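Anyone have tokens for Glycosyltransferase family 4 protein? Sequence:
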Amino acid sequence: MKKKVLISGLITSNLLDESALFLSRITQVLAMNRDAEIDLLLTAPFEKNTVLKQLLNYPNIHLIDPFEEAKYSDFHFFSGIDVTARGAALLIDYTLHHNDYDIIMIGSLDVGRELVRMDSRFIDRLLVNVTGMTKNGNAIPEEIWQLLLTIISGGGRLLCQTQQMIHYLHSELHIENEKMIYLNPMIPDNLYTFEQIFTPRKRYNRFSHMDIFSRESEIITLIDQFRMLQETYPEAALYLAEDDTAKTQEIPELLHEVLEHASNIIWISGLTPSSTINLIRLSDVGILYRKDDLNDSFELSPKLFEYCNMAVPPIINRSEMHEAILGADYPYYADDDVEFYSQMVKVIEDPELYEATARKVYALAKQFSCTATYHRLAPHLFGIPENETDQLVSEVFQKQEPIFREADSIYFFPLGENDMQFIEEAARHGRILSMDVNNGVALCHVQAGESGSMSDMLKAATELAYYTHRSHFAKASEDIGHFIKGAPLPIEQIPASEPAPEIEYIEPGLVLSLETENAQLKNELAVIKRQYQRLSSSKLGSMQKKYWKIRNKKKNKKSR
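Reply: yep, here.
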């Protein structure tokens, strides 16, 4: 049965901030249900597709841009400045009065508060993401707990980023657990094996730190610590990166003089989602160490899971939230500057511990993928699947075990590191006819009673690769070279120059239409043309053209 879903919040579609990423990814997750029809209401003009470009490929996602649609033209606040929480609530309220929705998902408490104040008729369909919640010993502000209780008493539900937040709200406000839904930070599905992601080296000495504008004074301390490290390990490198939410891509004034005389400390700005992933992949360690005033937050940084997804262990504060994810015995906790320095030394001096930790964090990231999130979230929003196939898909993914359905000879198996092993197992049930993929699970159709052949298995593996979009191209540090601002070394000398596999994600549940696929091919052709033109205009290209021109002349003379 079809379900209409409205998703909105203070999303800035032209920036790469966490609110935009949250709303973009939860939209992708819900779109994995083929019976869901989703409207994503923007609260900023759709100027750049940095965050939202993948959503355009989904047949069951519709982007509502009120800055372009005529029916929203009467709103007075479209003046080029950011829309406030009240402005976002007005847009949502207007949309709700013109469309009928089964589910209304709001990305932040401030927008939810304004919407509830305006109109309480929609509360029974409301799901509000709880943000800004801490356990610092102070009581929950009365305005907030009254809002939460109003949503709950009206039949709405709360989305909580951690189990600790659910426990806290249950103990402090006596909110029933079934009124709260665990919704973890989401990361793209990564179908590569650890061996494909991880590049063993003799020494791991490349560190990266992102989002440096928020606490510039702490960055100065970090750089001082890193300079001390370089006195013993001069080859160590530090990337200071800022995504394209930054209002400027210039080096902050506070850091300019520091970086001007630094060695192997590299400033990078203007990162898109894909280039952020590639920079993480080129790093050995992510720096998430912060001052301890953030330790009481019930929320988790998405960067934690993005680093883990690339098998890059972070140096991070020890907190209840982090221990719940990484374990109490995680080796790279730092609670002060002295511990932070010693952890950087530990990474460099103990490569065996580092490699074991990299494997551990890579494995734990799987449970926070978009597909894993969907399978946890779907029963709360859409109920138990009505058809048997969807039920089996959910069971296979959650148990990570294959199932063979004899009635129609379909072998279900979870996608991951054991794909070829499962394909061989499917071939034991009969000749493999075709492959499908459904929300992280492969459906292998076989002809029972006929023996499987090696060629059938190879064909199945090739077909599966098309669905998972798994590629193994090399990607070197030169590809992020145009983001470097004032690098102290020529880009080819930056220590991160070892080739690494490029990570190409296919968003979960995405089925590309012929039109979309054609557009992608056109884009790839344009890239090839640009590469040819660059080569053609180079000295090497000029020599090659002269060589072939002379050779063709000689060939023509001989043919005469």
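The first strand starts at residue 3 and ends at 8.
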